[in-house]
Amino acid sequence: MAATAGVARGRISVGHIALAVPIIAAVVSGRIQVRDNSYLWHVRAGTLQIDLGRVLTEDPFSFTAAGRAWRTQSWLADLFYGWADRRWGLAVVTPIVIVGALLIVGSIAVRNYRVLRSPLAAAVATTWVMWLLIGYFTPRPVVFSLGFLALMLVVADEERLRWVLPPLMWLWASVHGGFVVGIGYLVLDGLRRRDRRRIVDVTAVTLITLFTAHGLGTWQIVLQFLGNGEALDLIMEWLTPNLISIQLFPFLLGIVAILIGAIRGRVAMADLWVIVPFLAFAFTANRSVPLAGLVLAPWFVSSLMSLGRKATSTTRVQGILNAVIMALVIVLPWVVPIEGGLDDELFAVEAVEHLQPGPAFHDDGVGGYLIYTKWPDRLVYIDDRAELYEEDFVDFVKTRDGDEIWQVVFARYDIEQALLKHDDRLSQILLAEGWNPIFEDDRFVVLVAP
């Protein structure tokens, strides 16, 4: 389709302003306190890899899984995190999140504008995806994984950029296990286009993943993770999505829009090769929804809006006013005060200082902070690496909830101290058993055995 009249004249339209609005979410997300415990253990994994001169192949951090086979799936990101943390500390979190989020926003906007040929339509698509993604704008490697998927969607549509796919996939496979989604998309997109050259692309990007630091282990990591269903069922990100929740309701609207578009003939039959599998994929876990949203955005908006209607032209005065507004939209998020640092309450920063070196019981959120600040003290019972802990993660949840198994767990690991929340059932049980509180605040209590 032809570009809008405002675009043709080089003027800023309302659609362009709307297209810039998601930048606000990207920038502001990087200017809040660190609340992600997995980033903290990724940092320590990075510094340890730098010191050892190799990637990690066993767990060095916990006393529950010490020495157990475990690979640093995000080894390349971890190296960067460790290097950056040694130079700038937690101050590096802000640029990490902002750069990752802007990579996502920019790629989404470019792809949807090229497909939909309307700034306003592209803005709707970008905002829709951003709503689904906002919870993933954290310093974890997942933010780069989402960015690589968004970038790959742009590259895959350009014949002259096909050469970018293998190096892009090498980086992706070195940063996050989500690379398998990208390979799946290329397969489905090849079926949609009936393009045999996609066979070459898929073969190349699959083979290149074997030349990362872990080699074939790159795929073994993914298979091990997916095979650990019992532990994943205890993590919110991997539960079946609730599409009537505030966070995911827009995706439900997107499904309805696509279905209506298909009925009205706005969705080609060939497109179903991509649409149907990614709709099904979205129902597998909360974490799958934003990935599916990235892929399906153009079909959602083209079904929702009438893009064939000629846009109203933008006058010179309107264009100047719109340019000023757009500049404000882009600049204002950068003046938001930076809170910085760690969320003291989430990570129990003060309570942790009252733990003694040696085995301690605590939750997975505190575990990441302990790895970051207290390793190599043998304090870490658990963190959020579900693929490592397997049945230990299930035991952790039961123990925290006051199941009788707590006595077995404590005896197995010789645990004589615990950092718990006041509302954890186990804290009440330990107090009744005569454990002594040596520290407590509004949220946490540190207990030691009598």
Provide structural commentary.
The chain has 450 residues and is mainly alpha-helical. The protein folds into 2 domains: 7-304, no CATH class; 349-448, no CATH class. The chain has 23 helices and 3 strands. It has helices spanning 5-8, 14-20, 22-29, 37-52, 75-88, 93-116, 119-133, 142-156, 165-175, 179-193, 197-208, 217-226, 229-232, 249-263, 272-282, 288-304, 316-331, 349-352, 364-373, 386-389, 391-400, 405-413, 425-432, and strands at residues 417-421, 436-440, 444-448. α3 (22-29) runs antiparallel to α6 and α14 (249-263) packs across α16 (288-304).
The number of E-state strands comes to 3
Mean pLDDT: 86
> Class by helix and strand content?
mainly alpha
Structure annotation, total helices: 23
List the domain count as a whole number.
Answer: 2
List keywords for this structure.
23 helices; 450 residues; 58% helix; disordered N terminus; mainly alpha; 3% strand; 3-stranded antiparallel beta sheet
Overview in brief:
With 450 residues, the chain is mainly alpha-helical. It is built from 23 helices and three strands. Strand 2 and strand 3 (444-448) form a beta hairpin.
